[in-house]
Design goal:
The chain contains 16 helices and 13 strands. β2, α2 and β3 form a beta-alpha-beta unit. The strands form 2 sheets. Strands 3-2-1-4-5-6-7 form a 7-stranded parallel beta sheet, with helices on both faces. α1 packs across α16 and α10 packs across α14. The chain folds into 2 domains: 205 residues, Glycogen Phosphorylase B (Rossmann fold, 3-Layer(aba) Sandwich), CATH 3.40.50.2000; 183 residues, Glycogen Phosphorylase B (Rossmann fold). The longest helix is centred in the C-terminal third of the chain and has 21 residues. Helix content is 43%, strand content 15%. By secondary structure, the protein is an alpha/beta fold.
Length: 393
């Protein structure tokens, strides 16, 4: 069977889960085509190694040779931009119509495909996966109606958490067309290795894009509170990742007088990130809802940390409580609640033995519900079901 993926820029460092899902289908004998919104200069993995080599050989920009007009089209008034974009999208319809099913990552790409379906130009069934930004931002703007065509003409809408499922149903998506399908991680490549920090400095780590919704500001503020309340505790906080807030966060660490205990390492290759995780004891990600409504799905970085045996400290945000249960598989504080977050971090620092039990339960949680192999099997069954229905028709 042939599956056509519709994505944004491809490949993307922040969306390695997309490549992982494509690779899962390749391993199960599917043919995968990719239609994207620009082929990126991706330098965090070898483009000549699998699965990227196979995927990039079958990747096409939505607009083909007209892709160079994208900046000009982007400056057009909204209504005219939508009409021109949809007209240009037609250049990829023939390729997509050769597929048995179309999978769109992110709601806006699903809506894009649904417009072509509405015009009776796109033939395969559409499966759309919603991740976070595509739910939170339109929800804040009261603009979920932008998905009305998708709700009508799409075959299935998959959400990465149950919170998003409920939001889409409340917005008018038929319940029968919405289901939860988690993103997962490859547990074969992540060994469990809890290490006690009794008698040694507690090594805290965050791995994320330095953007508002990741909540790193509140981690810094909470750690400043920990230092003020318990100056005898020895800890160090390593932050891996880059983004628009990096300079502001570095300045905040200095302002809070904890810069000597905080290291900003910038973006690193995945193999280097794994090494840093092995050196660390606790993973910190106190995510928040951004001003524009952007939210997390269920962060893959949290899953990886839990699988590796780190104690996670996060927030009651979006789908995170579906992964992390406070004081059972990790620790949670309400969004922007610096006091509770500081209390959770201090508890972790002072009680490594109790954290060992929590870390073990966290690994079991990920194995039970977020194992990529099991989830890829489920996804392959979903795709096969809808592709088979099209072939019968």
């Amino acid at each position: 069977m042939r599956v056509g993926f519709i994505v944004g820029q491809f490949p993307s460092l922040s969306e390695t889960f997309v490549v992982g899902q494509m690779a899962g289908l390749l391993r199960r004998g599917f043919t995968v085509d990719v239609v994207c919104n620009g082929i990126s200069d991706y330098n965090f993995a070898d483009r000549n190694q699998e699965p990227l080599a196979t995927l990039l050989a079958r990747t096409r920009d939505w607009w083909g040779a007209a892709a160079r007009t994208r900046p000009t089209v982007g400056r057009l008034p909204a209504r005219l931009r939508d009409k021109v974009s949809t007209a240009l999208d037609l250049s990829s319809v023939a390729r997509l119509n050769e597929c048995d099913v179309v999978v769109a990552h992110f709601g806006h790409n699903g809506a894009r495909a649904a417009r072509l379906k509405k015009w009776k130009r796109l033939k395969p069934p559409i499966v759309t996966i919603f991740h976070g930004y595509d739910v939170g931002v339109p929800l804040r703007e009261r603009g979920l109606s932008r998905y009305n065509d998708l709700f009508e003409h799409g075959t299935l809408n998959l959400t990465v958490n149950d919170y998003f499922r409920r939001v889409l149903v409340d917005a008018g998506a038929p319940q029968a067309k919405v289901a939860v399908h988690h993103m997962g991680i490859d547990l074969r490549n992540i060994s469990y290795g809890w290490r006690s920090w009794r008698g040694v400095p507690l090594q805290l780590i965050s791995v994320c894009r330095l953007a508002e919704k990741k909540g790193v500001e509140y981690a810094l503020r909470a750690l400043a509170r920990v230092r003020a309340d318990a100056p005898e505790l020895d800890w160090h906080y390593t932050i891996i990742g880059d983004g628009p807030l990096r300079q502001k966060l570095e300045a905040l660490a200095s302002e809070l007088d904890i810069a000597g205990r905080v290291s900003f390492l910038g973006s690193l290759a995945h193999k280097d990130v794994k090494q840093w995780l092995r050196r660390s004891h606790a993973f910190v990600l106190p995510s928040v809802t951004a001003k524009n409504g952007d939210v997390e799905g269920i962060p893959v970085a949290l899953m990886e940390a839990m699988a590796a045996g780190l104690t996670v400290v996060s927030s009651n945000h979006s789908g995170i409580p579906e992964l992390v249960e406070d004081q059972e598989t990790g620790f949670l504080a309400d969004e922007k609640d610096v006091g509770t977050l500081a209390h959770r971090l201090r508890f972790v620092a002072e009680h490594p033995e109790q954290c060992e039990r929590i870390a073990l339960q966290a690994r079991k949680k990920v194995e039970a519900e977020f194992d990529m192999e099991a989830l890829d099997n489920d996804f392959a069954e979903i795709v096969s079901r809808f592709a088979g229905a099209r072939q019968v028709a």
